[in-house]
Amino acid sequence: MKWLLFGLTLLAVCVFGLAVGQQWINPFDASGQDAVILWELRLPRLLTAFAVGGLLALAGAWFQVLLGNPLAEPYVLGVAGSASAGAVSGLMLMPDSAWVMSIGAFIGAWVGIVCVMFFSHLGANRMLLAGVVLAAFWSAVLALLLALLPEQGLFRAFSWMMGDLSHSDLPVSLLLLAWVVALVCGLLLSRSLDVLLLGERHAEALGIDVKRLRQRLLLLASAVTALAVTAAGTIGFVGLVIPHLMRLLFGSLHRAVLPASAIGGGVLLMLADSAARTVIAPAELPVGILTAIIGVPVFLFLLLRRPT
Amino acid sequence: MSALLELEQIAVERGGSAVISDLSCSIHAGEITVVLGPNGAGKSSLLLAMAGLIPVTGRLELNGKILETYARAELSRQVAWQGSLPPTEFGLTVKQRLALAAADPAIDVEITATEMDVAALLSRPLGELSSGERQRVELAALMLRDTPVWLLDEPTAHLDLKHQIHCITMLKQQAEAGRAIVTVLHDIQQAMAIADFVILVDGKCAEGQGGTAYGEAADLLNSATLSELFDAPVVEQGDVLIADYGVTRE
Q1: How far is A241 from A302, CA to CA, in rounded Å?
Q2: What is the separation of C-alpha B108 from the centre of its chain, rounded to a whole number of angstroms?
Q3: Which of the ends of chain B has fewer CB neighbours closer than 10 A, N or C?
Q4: For residues A179 and A51, is the Cβ–Cβ distance under 8 A?
């Protein structure tokens, strides 16, 4: 029943996301100019939002288990910071290029991942500490770059840093393929992830090669984060809260949490992006602001309803 | 009868300093070996080493094969370890926790839960339970591990008297059924009730004196040895050994 409602919500949000915008278009009766707007502008953007939201939520669920910390999220180990520094570096070097921020972000994200991989052999707590310190380092680098960035580039940089789906350079098909691959990989690891919830010692005693699992998980979660950041900048909140929300709704086992997060993250970002391009149309709000404005009350409401 | 676990001149380190040195012993099917010693002496580290969860120097064999050469999954089919209570942050329920312990997903965890008096807790998240209830869940999880060797770190910790007795009885039954059990205990009377063999760990290994002792329970469980081990008075009262608290009821 829960899954049915979840599926219906997904469908409803898809239809809503297609219909709303600067002008209301009925997706079931669109022709001419409206059909072009609907299928060539709104649909790709909606699917991008779905894939990016799903990838962020998956990465969040993985980082939370990997680090044994429910406060972990995709950006906790500094990958977003290094990606942002990369994106702004690109903007400084080639301010007029359309792709330069995405390319810079992708390179920056992987520089951040390589840095984190040096600490993957440490236990969860020390790795988290290393990641937080690295994140602080990348924030400082980013602040330095922003201070040096010419004024005309600042708006583009800030807009990207707060999450922006309007200029996504990555093909939608690539993002959707990544969504599917990430979810399948996650499901293949789901039993091991469940066992890891018992802590590393218990997981090892139950036959899991924890060191190898942690490396795989770190690489997978980081790669997914890098792709999401490259596509849409840094969009907070989705990766932190959606996995928790899905655990409240579907329980703790990953064969349910992962598909629910992949879909739930997509739904939240589709909703937020629909609002972002509508609220102050024809201008747009950064979508990262709206993910928090929509998601926080929903999450707190569910938290309060659940018995302690 | 050949030993399931064979330890020969074992040394274990914790935090860079030796906690166990020069320990040799054999663990056989159907026997209970109790590990005794003061806090911080290295009892838990010894169990972790026997479970292959921390490195060890010396010769440690399981079924005649060096323990380190076992793949993690194969080792888990031979040795079960019950240690610290697992974290509760992610909302696992008792039923889910037990299902994760079961080697065979087809096993009905409810039967074991009933046997171990946790059936009423099955749908509750671990985080809502008391420490004693969580300990009972861990014992039920151990029951689902049908391995020849069980390693238990203070299985009666947090338990009320009824469940302490239940736990001790269950360990005795499991040993009689052929399982090899090594368990850390703090209660001398519990140790006397079930120990066939005893490993004493005095925690003075790093100081270059003392270390470990291994032998039959009948030889080592006496007031003089335990008083020295714990640096506390242990007296004989009839057939049992008890701690002398030095106070009496008026």
Answers
A1: 11
A2: 25
A3: C
A4: yes
Tell me the Ramachandran region of residue B134: left when phi exceeds 0, alpha when psi lies from -120 to 50, beta otherwise: alpha
Q: Which residue of A has its CA nearest to B77?
A: A207
Per-residue pLDDT of chain A (308 residues; tens, 9 = 90+): 888 988 899 999 999 999 988 888 888 887 888 888 888 889 999 999 999 999 999 999 999 998 888 878 888 888 888 988 998 998 888 877 767 888 888 899 889 888 887 877 777 788 888 888 998 999 999 999 999 988 888 888 887 787 778 777 778 999 999 999 999 999 999 999 999 999 999 999 999 999 899 889 988 988 898 889 888 888 888 998 899 889 988 989 999 999 999 999 999 999 999 988 888 878 778 888 888 787 778 778 777 765 54
ipTM above 0.95, yes or no: no
Packed helices B161-176 and B131-143: angle between N→C axes, nearest 10 degrees:
10
CA distances from B210 to A284, B204, B221 (A): 74, 5, 17
| CB proximity A306 to B under 8 Å | no
Spans of all domains in chain A:
53-234
Q: Which residues in chain B have Cβ-Cβ distances shorter than 8 Å to A203?
A: none
Residue B167 Cα, gap to closest chain A Cα (Å): 20
CATH number of A53-234: 1.10.3470.10
Q: Which neighbouring-strand residues pair with B243?
A: B234
Q: Where are the domains of chain B?
A: 5-243
Classify domain B5-243 at the CATH superfamily level. P-loop containing nucleotide triphosphate hydrolases (3.40.50.300)
Chain A, chain B: beta-carbon pairs less than 8 Å apart: 63
Q: Please state, in angstroms and as integers, the Cα–Cα distance from residue B230 to each residue in B40, B186, B214, B234, following that order.
A: 12, 10, 16, 9
